[in-house]
Amino acid sequence: RKELDFKGKLYVAPLTTVGNLPFRRVCTDLGADITVSEMAMASNLLKGDRKEWALLRRHPSEKCYGIQVCGGYPDLMARCAELIDNEVSCDFIDVNMGCPIDGVCAKGAGSSLMRDTDRLKNVVRTMAAVSSTPVTIKLRMGYFDDPSKYVAHDIIPRAKAWGAFAATLHGRTREQRYSRLADWSYIHRCADVAAKSEFTLIGNGDVYTYEDYNAQVADNKVATCMIGRGAIIKPWLMTEIKEQRHWDISANERLDLFKDFCQYGLEHWGSDSMGVEKTRRYLLEWMSYTHRYVPIGLLEQNVVPKLHLRPMRYVGRSDLETKLASDRLEDWLELSEICGLGKPDASFKFVPKHASNSYTK
């Protein structure tokens, strides 16, 4: 099997819709070491679904690249792992055991696997048996929002024996979804257990500054942090962690990141009218998160906002900075024009695909 080392590497989470190839290129430019595809359904891959296979495309700049698959049954997942192992260039296969979406759980996949440890074990064992590519797993603390029913601390010490190379633990339950802060005390409890068997554990949840990152890896038991919403809202977080500083990024520098995304999008999806509109839609999906960033230069000294909260409205240091903070579609469309995508068709409509429920309007 391929040799992998997650220790101290900056790991961008698999992000449905937003975590597309152009976005991952932006993250790689800013210092990401490990990237993962958007979650792909194993059943659709086995059917040869072109849209699902498109999620697996890798850019040469992605130095360490994983493919995340989701499915609930050992035979299905084993065939999928074997297919990926034979047909796709990747460094590891990550099994999603944490997705909280109702439709996914209803199929016995995602978080529902945590309700059936025997089936979860057999999924890992069969995939590891047929794949020369390392298999990793991504868990939540448990299915139910009840500390007495958390199961990750029971799964993690056995996962290595089942054939898993590493595990990522998101410090929330399925019932919790993305509400409340991640429980890092529980992640560290699981890291203590993982360390006894020399098993790699990666923590996930609410890493928004280099100080957050440093605090969670300080004891060397958590190999690194998987960065999700922090990477969407401020992808320069990877640079901040590597350079150990807060970056008071300017509005023009933020706009340049959108321009890079548009360039990468046109290369990936094409520069015809369909490619332009697809690039625009994915740019707007990303903007539905980025407007939540509050420039640290507008805050009191030594105050860094938690990005899980909806920020108060503010006036930026320039008109562009104010526009970047807008949650109005009209402003997002104007920014997409500035980035070189031109005016959208008069019939263009857009509603963000995902709305975080960690805050209310």
UniProtKB/TrEMBL annotation:
<feature type="domain" description="DUS-like FMN-binding">
    <location>
        <begin position="12"/>
        <end position="260"/>
    </location>
</feature>
<protein>
    <recommendedName>
        <fullName>tRNA-dihydrouridine(47) synthase [NAD(P)(+)]</fullName>
        <ecNumber>1.3.1.89</ecNumber>
    </recommendedName>
</protein>
<dbReference type="InterPro" id="IPR013785">
    <property type="entry name" value="Aldolase_TIM"/>
</dbReference>
<dbReference type="GO" id="GO:0102265">
    <property type="term" value="F:tRNA-dihydrouridine47 synthase activity"/>
</dbReference>
<dbReference type="GO" id="GO:0008270">
    <property type="term" value="F:zinc ion binding"/>
</dbReference>
<keyword id="KW-0288">FMN</keyword>
<keyword id="KW-0285">Flavoprotein</keyword>
<keyword id="KW-0677">Repeat</keyword>
<keyword id="KW-0819">tRNA processing</keyword>
<keyword id="KW-0507">mRNA processing</keyword>
<dbReference type="InterPro" id="IPR035587">
    <property type="entry name" value="DUS-like_FMN-bd"/>
</dbReference>
<dbReference type="GO" id="GO:0050660">
    <property type="term" value="F:flavin adenine dinucleotide binding"/>
</dbReference>
<dbReference type="InterPro" id="IPR018517">
    <property type="entry name" value="tRNA_hU_synthase_CS"/>
</dbReference>
<dbReference type="GO" id="GO:0006397">
    <property type="term" value="P:mRNA processing"/>
</dbReference>
<comment type="function">
    <text>Catalyzes the synthesis of dihydrouridine, a modified base found in the D-loop of most tRNAs. Specifically modifies U47 in cytoplasmic tRNAs. Catalyzes the synthesis of dihydrouridine in some mRNAs, thereby affecting their translation.</text>
</comment>
<keyword id="KW-0863">Zinc-finger</keyword>
<keyword id="KW-0521">NADP</keyword>
<dbReference type="GO" id="GO:0003723">
    <property type="term" value="F:RNA binding"/>
</dbReference>
<dbReference type="Pfam" id="PF01207">
    <property type="entry name" value="Dus"/>
</dbReference>
<keyword id="KW-0560">Oxidoreductase</keyword>
<keyword id="KW-0520">NAD</keyword>
<comment type="similarity">
    <text>Belongs to the Dus family. Dus3 subfamily.</text>
</comment>
<keyword id="KW-0862">Zinc</keyword>
<keyword id="KW-0479">Metal-binding</keyword>
